[in-house]
Specification:
With 181 residues, the chain is α/β, with parallel strands linked by helices. It has a single domain (2-180), classed as Rossmann fold. 39% of the residues lie in helices and 14% in strands. The protein has 5 helices and 6 strands. Strands 1, 2, 3, 4, 5 and 6 form a 6-stranded parallel sheet that branches. Strand 4 (105-111), helix 4 (119-132) and strand 5 (135-136) form a beta-alpha-beta unit. Helix 1 crosses helix 5. The longest helix is centred in the last third of the chain and has 21 residues, at 160-180. The structure holds flavin mononucleotide. Flavin mononucleotide binds at residues 9, 11, 14-16, 76-80, 112-114.
Length: 181
């Protein structure tokens, strides 16, 4: 089973990118998470007719989404919402013909320095997938708060409790993908 991982942060030491990697390591045998690493190449969406040619990075993301059995999105929380780069990518993909989020199994997670661990951003993100008809797993949920205390300087997840929760989460997500994918 091949999951496409999308971290909604461009930061070199992103906790969300680290969480995507940790999720790949915590996935059950036979499942893997491939990170999408071209989010920073996606230009700001402009709905003017002349601006609507699909950029390479958007075409690549659309293709990767279609090819994946499921998506795993890790969002930061920016000012109580989804990061701009992630929302921008979703807006682009939503305008691709035969939009690829439709009927795609999706896991949502997130890491933040704040105590609520992206809860507000995750519900913000889930709302977009209601309209786009993505099959977001309702539960379990995973909120990684105080992320700066849970990853080391190389981005490795060092918090054992979070690793256990992530392992259970990945078990549930792969079962969800098998069920609805
Ligand atoms: C513009 C901006 C807004 C932020 N707003 C929030 C917020 O609303 N809640 C929160 O918990 N952390 C907030 N933070 C802190 C982020 O949790 C922290 O920067 C985190 O490391 C972002 O994820 P990343 O490591 O994947 O880049 C904000 C950070 C930035 C840069």
């Amino acid at each position: 089973m091949n999951l496409l991982g999308i971290a909604g942060s461009l930061r070199a030491g992103s906790f969300n990118a680290s969480l995507i990697r940790a999720a790949g390591a915590a996935a059950p045998d036979g499942a893997g998470v491939t990170p999408f690493d071209r989010l920073g190449e996606i230009p700001p969406y402009n709905d003017d007719e002349k601006q609507k040619a699909i950029p390479d990075a958007v075409a690549a993301l659309a293709e990767d989404i279609r090819a994946a059995d499921g998506l795993l999105i890790s969002t930061p929380e920016y000012n109580y919402g989804v990061s701009g780069v992630l929302k921008n990518a979703i807006d682009w993909i939503s305008r691709v013909p035969d939009q690829p989020f439709k009927n795609k199994p999706i896991g949502v997670m997130g890491a933040a320095m704040g105590g609520l661990g992206t809860a507000r951003a995750q519900y913000d993100l889930r709302r977009s997938f209601i309209f786009l008809e993505g099959l977001v797993m309702n539960r379990p949920e995973i909120f990684v708060g105080a992320a700066h205390t849970k990853f080391d300087e190389n981005g490795a997840l060092t918090d054992a409790a979070t690793r256990d929760i992530l392992t259970d989460y990945m078990k549930a997500l792969t079962a969800w993908i098998e069920r609805v994918g």
